[in-house]
Design a protein that fits this description.
The structure is a homodimer.
Chain A: H1 11-33, H2 37-48, E1 52-53, H3 54-61, H4 65-77, E2 81-85, E3 93-97, H5 99-120, H6 127-144
Antiparallel strand pairs in A: 1-3, 2-3
Chain A binds a DNA duplex through helix 1, helix 2 and helix 4.
DNA sequence: AAAGATAATATCGTGTGCGATATATTGTTA
DNA sequence: TAACAATATATCGCACACGATATTATCTTT
């Protein structure tokens, strides 16, 4: 019986579980918007800066392009983004928001912060705990990023 | 521009990213064992207590049975677990380790703690940081679990 | 004990993630 | 400048996750 191999001693299992459960907590609001959590991440990247090539979006989300490309294709079908070939560099696909994609920012703002803070009400963590948590997660992300 | 909707302010995006990256860090060792990370989680559950029904494994991992069932089917094909109908309750499928599945515990112990601590060497977090992190993640998991 | 409710597991469809590989374009170098 | 390397993106295959639904067995209630 190796204590190191026990589920209860695993940070990774907690990260994996916490990520799944918190993502699930977004689902009711995201369903109302008609999108998934990874699609919401792409939208946040584009709300911050519109018209970016696939690579920049992938880097920002620390995902591979073979994950992001099909994601963007689905989002294009939904009519929330559009893609066009880069003008200087024809290899690039420049991704931009449609009117529908831009309008979703306000709807997201009306739904998501409220919806999440309601669900977080029963969480014992305080603001400073979250701030430290974010920093520690960034340390972990930095340690393992490629 | 809503600050609440910026990627940099999102705990969930950190959890999502940290979980992916740390799981990826397990991949070289797990590939050597011929399994995936979720399969490794199932093995840890069974190393701790052999012969469990699907439901108990799913509860322990906080996953749905429609995720766990196909996972177990793949593991059965790999010859690391076996499944048989419950004797008192014929609806149950009792999952148990094969000899191969039991032997993998020692191999995992030889590969994984070493492999992970090498990769963690450059991480600035100290032991007490990890301990607090685990507790805070448990708080989050508890808040959002169903 | 027959009927309906509940429980345990499985199946199906969709959307990620990601390794491996392909394709098209651009940059570099002999 | 023709050949070759590098880059940006896409395609393919496989393994999760998970909502919705189906199937089989047990439990409960009349």
């Amino acid at each position: 019986m190796h204590a190191e191999l026990q589920l209860d001693n695993q940070v990774c299992f907690r990260l994996y579980t916490a990520a799944r459960l918190v993502t699930q907590a977004y689902t009711p609001m995201l369903t109302e918007l008609g999108i998934t959590y990874p699609q919401y991440l792409v939208l946040m990247v584009l709300w911050e800066k519109d018209c970016q090539p696939v690579n920049d979006i992938a880097h920002r989300l620390m995902l591979e392009t073979n994950t992001v490309t099909p994601l963007l294709q689905r989002m294009e079908k939904l009519g929330i983004i559009s893609r066009k070939r880069g003008e200087q560099d024809k290899r690039q696909h420049i991704v931009s928001l449609t009117a529908k994609g831009r309008e979703m920012e306000q709807r997201a703002y009306d739904l998501i912060p409220t919806g999440m803070s309601e669900q977080l009400a029963s969480c014992p963590l305080k603001l400073e705990d979250y701030q430290r948590l974010v920093q520690e997660l960034d340390s972990i992300i930095n340690t393992f990023k490629k």
